[in-house]
């Protein structure tokens, strides 16, 4: 499946912009292993800002060397309000890297709906390491949740903890009305036009070949890296058999949280839940 950059989004490989001074956020384009420019933002987190006011207190923070890498859901991007909100909560516990998957926002290429996106996440994780962070936690939502699972399985030892929120366990699921609409969006020419012009998401027209490793088969390969699976009991996309399949596949290694009253992905993950996820990650990542 070809995934060359599309249009004016492929402007540069690394182009910092929007810096806010020492220790401030950095926005840049990363280059993936297959040559796709991925728009990314680094926020050093609250601990860095505290360092200017109280260097001794900040240097003793257990989360100062930790970075969260957020993998958004399908049709999201780095500047969507729900992605920025999640990043804002996590930055109180560590640094944060956000990015737009290929075909989303201002990143290049076209979305492969969870396949080649592993390369996008890999570029973001590598950037976090180059920025000097000793502990990296990936946090993925929906499509991004499946990507963080596959990334941890295919790149063992790359990250220090994995959090998957609202992820599918298996591919080609059409058991709910939202998933049937999503399949129309991805598989039909008119659906891809809606995606491009209505949702700012450029979707590849070719089928997967080969079919990527399903999340449920990826999960057993993640151990011993700590794993947290989070799912809402009112998720309209993937019912509870999906997280339960993932937890069972983990063989007792992964931790499962079923959240009462929660819907799907970033929109449904309130600040209190994101803060609990952050607390788990700070502890689990060592």
UniProtKB/TrEMBL annotation:
Residues 1-26 are annotated as: Disordered. GO terms for molecular function: hydrolase activity. The keyword GTP-binding does not apply. The keyword Hydrolase applies. It comes from the Bacteria. Residues 67-167 form the AB hydrolase-1 domain. Keywords: Hydrolase. Belongs to the AB hydrolase superfamily. FUS2 hydrolase family. PANTHER family: DIENELACTONE HYDROLASE DOMAIN-CONTAINING PROTEIN-RELATED, POLYKETIDE TRANSFERASE AF380. This is Alpha/beta hydrolase. It comes from Streptomyces eurythermus. The lineage of its organism: Bacteria, Bacillati, Actinomycetota, Actinomycetes, Kitasatosporales.
């Amino acid at each position: 499946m070809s995934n060359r950059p599309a249009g004016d989004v492929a402007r540069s490989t690394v182009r910092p912009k929007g810096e806010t001074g020492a220790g401030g956020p950095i926005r840049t384009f990363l280059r993936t292993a297959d040559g796709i420019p991925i728009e990314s933002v680094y926020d050093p987190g609250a601990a860095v800002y505290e360092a200017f006011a109280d260097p001794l207190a900040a240097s003793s923070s257990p989360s100062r060397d930790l970075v969260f890498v957020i993998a958004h859901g399908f049709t999201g991007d780095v500047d969507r309000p729900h992605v920025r909100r999640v990043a804002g909560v996590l930055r109180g516990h560590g640094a944060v890297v956000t990015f737009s998957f290929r075909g989303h926002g201002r990143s290049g290429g076209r979305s492969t709906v969870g396949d080649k996106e592993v390369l996008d996440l890999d570029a973001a994780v590598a950037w976090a390491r180059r920025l000097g962070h000793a502990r990296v936690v990936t946090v993925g939502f929906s499509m991004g949740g499946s990507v963080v699972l596959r990334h941890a399985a295919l790149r063992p030892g790359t990250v220090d903890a994995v959090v998957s929120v609202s992820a599918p366990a298996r591919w080609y699921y059409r058991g709910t009305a939202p998933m049937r609409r999503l399949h129309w969006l991805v598989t039909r020419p008119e659906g891809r036009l809606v995606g491009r012009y209505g949702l700012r998401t450029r979707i590849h027209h070719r089928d997967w070949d080969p079919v990527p490793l399903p999340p449920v088969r990826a999960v057993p390969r993640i151990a011993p890296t700590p794993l947290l699976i989070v799912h809402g009991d009112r998720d309209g996309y993937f019912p509870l058999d999906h997280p339960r399949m993932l937890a069972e596949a983990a063989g007792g290694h992964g931790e499962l949280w079923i959240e009462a009253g929660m819907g799907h992905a970033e929109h449904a993950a309130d600040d209190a839940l994101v803060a609990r996820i952050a607390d788990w990650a700070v502890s689990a990542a060592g």
